[in-house]
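Quiz preparation item.
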């Protein structure tokens, strides 16, 4: 009798507020594709009551096999001091070289382009404050994910799929995660060592 393979664990980053209904559908879709989903909103992250929310989320990133980050016009779920849980999860997933995929809301992409051209006649930069419609720090997350700090010719793993509607997100999610052989090949890929 063949052994049952363990389900791959995919973590969906902790961007929640104002997005709960869509997030629930994304979780359900990934479960339907036979993944074990780790997500704070879904209640599927192990919570050590002796740790902060940030530390519990970072432990979930360490536990997962795959990471799905969603960059929305709001800066994520929670801020602890200067740290934002969503951004810290993203940085940890990249640092640990977890296979990762990112979705970015079109408003973040649009704002990034717009901010490049906003200046006063005096030449001073316009400061955009966090507000109920948009948090400019989301542009910082997006630039981190697309490796804006690295020359274009040296970037690798910097794809962030733009979306506006849930169906666009689902197309990307199904394309990436429906074929388990594709995902397993990514997990088992060992980079060549030059020299």
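Solution:
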């Amino acid at each position: 009798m063949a052994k049952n393979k363990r389900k791959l664990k995919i973590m969906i980053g902790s961007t929640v507020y104002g997005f709960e209904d869509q997030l629930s559908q994304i979780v359900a879709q990934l479960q339907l594709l036979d993944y074990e989903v780790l997500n704070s909103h879904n209640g599927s992250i192990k919570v050590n009551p002796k740790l902060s929310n940030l530390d519990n989320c970072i432990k979930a990133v360490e536990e997962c096999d795959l990471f799905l980050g969603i960059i929305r016009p709001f800066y994520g779920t929670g801020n602890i001091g200067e740290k934002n849980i969503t951004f810290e999860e993203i940085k940890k997933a990249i640092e640990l070289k977890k296979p990762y995929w990112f979705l970015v809301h079109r408003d973040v992409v649009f704002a990034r382009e717009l901010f490049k051209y906003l200046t006063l006649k005096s030449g001073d930069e316009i400061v955009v404050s966090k507000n109920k419609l948009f948090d400019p720090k989301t542009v910082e997350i997006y630039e981190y994910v697309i490796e804006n700090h690295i020359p274009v010719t040296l970037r690798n793993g910097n794809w962030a799929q733009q979306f506006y509607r849930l169906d666009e997100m689902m197309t990307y999610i199904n394309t990436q995660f429906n074929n388990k052989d594709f995902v397993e090949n990514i997990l088992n890929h060992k980079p060549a060592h030059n020299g």
